[in-house]
Amino acid sequence: MYTIGVDLGGTQIRAGLFDPAGKLLVKAEALTLANEGAEAVIGRMKESIYEVIRHVEGSISGNIAGIGIGSPGPLNPFTGVVLSPSTLPGMIDIPLRTIMTDEFRVPVYVNNDANAAALGEWLYGSGQHTNNLLYVTISTGIGAGIVVDGKLLLGEQGSAGEIGHMIIDPNGPLCSCGNRGCWEACASGTGIVERTKQKLERCDETQPYSRLQLCRTQELTAKDVFAAAMRYDALAMEIIEETRMYLGIGLINLINLYNPQKIVFGGGVSKAGDFLLKQPIEMAQQRSLLGMRDVQFSMAALGENVGLYGAAALVSYEQRNK
Q1: What Pfam families would the database entry show (predicted)?
Q2: What average pLDDT does this structure show over 283-294?
């Protein structure tokens, strides 16, 4: 039977149809336009699902094993209720699983998008043949999906794995959660930009890096900071060195906490590759507890489709673990 995966993002909604072997056959995409409200977003999700279902012969109920949905959190994967994602304003206490089950009359599973991506990489990507996997996404924020002994780690309310809110530096930058020094505030793309802006504000013409191109960037992004560091911009290099240290501390904590066989990196910031990650990985391998240092590291293999594969994987995973 076929499965359908839906990747619900703050910018884009994507739906994919998968064959019984887990091969992506066709996909549909639509803008989320979250500012139009929950009803409009859910309507576009339904339209995207119907678009890929058109490629299935026969009845939906007889040919679709289920629909998996990866959504930004916080959400409750046990009830399928989306609580209040910051990237989806208006999606507050939405019973998404019930709504989609009523619409399509097939089993529907909803989980955090990072958990879904971890499942995708575990079953189809870089995490195959492992029982203990950490999928770490470094992007606008920092999140994780954690597979322990072959099962997703969910926690009491289904919110386990909020690694972006480990406190790395108690005197560090303010995080969106209200704490200071969270890993996300220190080392995410957003954190990199905010720390750079703060240092730029303190620049003056007597400082060498104040006259470099980085200071003239109007809409600063983490990508700009990486590019400037590669041109030996002193300020950018300082920021990247700090980021490497923060990432290394976080990885040490994760290894000591979860004893993973493999850590897989995803997300836009991780695309900086060895330039950003080589030093933190070496730091983690040298300073995590003895007996836990034999950790494999790799980049995500599924690319832009990791969310779709992960969402579809929710169906087989949930049905296998009932």
Answers
A1: ROK (PF00480)
A2: 95
Helix residue ranges, H only, the chain: 38-53, 60-63, 96-104, 113-124, 183-187, 189-201, 222-230, 234-258, 274-287, 306-320
Domain 128-300: CATH architecture, name and number where available: 2-Layer Sandwich (3.30)
Please give the Cα distance from 184 to 203 (Å, whole number). Answer: 25
Residue 280, token pair as written in the block: 């933190």
For the domain made up of 2-113+304-321, the CATH class stated in words is alpha beta
| pLDDT tens-digit map of 205-249 | 545 554 445 555 567 889 889 988 988 888 889 999 999 999 999
From the list 138, 144, 164, the residue with the least C-alpha distance to 271 is 138
CB contact at 8 A, 253 and 206: no
CA dist 237 and 225 (Å) reads 8
Q: What does the alpha-carbon distance between residue 8 and residue 279 come to, in Å, rounded to a whole number? A: 33
* Residue 69: strand, helix, or coil: strand
Query: pLDDT tens for residues 128-137?
Result: 999 999 999 9
Q: Which of 139, 140, 177 is nearest to 159 (CA)?
A: 177
C-beta neighbour count of 211 within 10 angstroms: 12
Q: Tens of pLDDT along 19-77?
A: 988 899 999 999 999 999 999 999 999 999 999 999 887 666 678 999 999 998 889 99
Confirm if 258 and 148 have CB atoms less than 8 A apart.
Answer: yes
